[in-house]
Amino acid sequence: MKKLVSVLIFVSGFISANVMADPLDFPHIVTTGYGEVTAKPDMAEFSVKVLETALTAEQAKQAVDKVVDKYLSGLKKAGVKAENIHSSNLYLAPQYHYPKDGKPELTGYRANRTVNVVVNDLPKLNNYLDLALKDGINQVNNIQLKVKEEAKFKRQARMAAIRDANNKAKSLAKGFDMKLGKVWQISYNAPNTQPVVMRPMALDMRKESNSYQDSSLVIRDRVDVIYKLKN
Questions:
Q1: What is the structure's pLDDT at 21?
Q2: Residue 105, φ and ψ in degrees, nearest 5
Q3: Domains along the chain with CATH numbers
Q4: Is 224 exposed, middle or buried (0-12, 13-18, 19+ CB in 10 A)?
Q5: CA neighbor of 77 nearest in space, from 34, 127, 141
Q6: Where on the phi/psi map is residue 79: left (φ > 0), alpha (ψ -120 to 50), or beta?
Q7: Which residues contact 166 (CB under 8 A, 6 or more apart)?
Q8: Which end of the chain has less Cβ packing within 10 Å, N or C?
Q9: pLDDT (tens digit, 9 = 90+) per residue, 176-219?
């Protein structure tokens, strides 16, 4: 009887554990295919915060609510739909002075609220940030640049990964004078797309806020495949 020889070729430095969980007793090739697509961002999400400190809790609350209400009204007038604006509840905390000797002394209260905005018309992003500055918002937490048709770009990256796995398997089989058989197992875990994140900043950013125009979003995917080999 002809002795069966197992052929295992690692194409990448890492093969997912579930692909190699059980030893295979037939000739095979294990490949990992990678694919990526570059997309130009056409939408954004950003988060801004207003912080106020006052002698009393009520004063701090009123100061924060006044700024947030004005900003929300301005966003709606600028055409941002209500479902694309989300404001957090008020966070209020007492502020103390701690002398070296003696008990802590209450000095006032700090209040803050956060507003998250989805921007579907990317060229208007700067307008909404300028509006925040004008209305008294004093902190930008982050700006994330994204694409609306993310699913389409993910499919393109996935197909590129599949083609990469196939091409590697064909090349390896040919190089070892063997014939590539059918696919025996596919292992796939969709990676999360990472948006382009602009650095957090205070609202002194007129030179910084245009940098998103030159940004690009890279969407990546991978697939692990086991192919049978024929002698």
A1: 53
A2: -115, 125
A3: 28-39+149-193+217-230 (3.30.110.170), 43-146 (3.30.70.2970)
A4: buried
A5: 127
A6: left
A7: 33, 225
A8: N
A9: 999 999 999 999 987 877 776 765 544 444 444 455 666 788 99
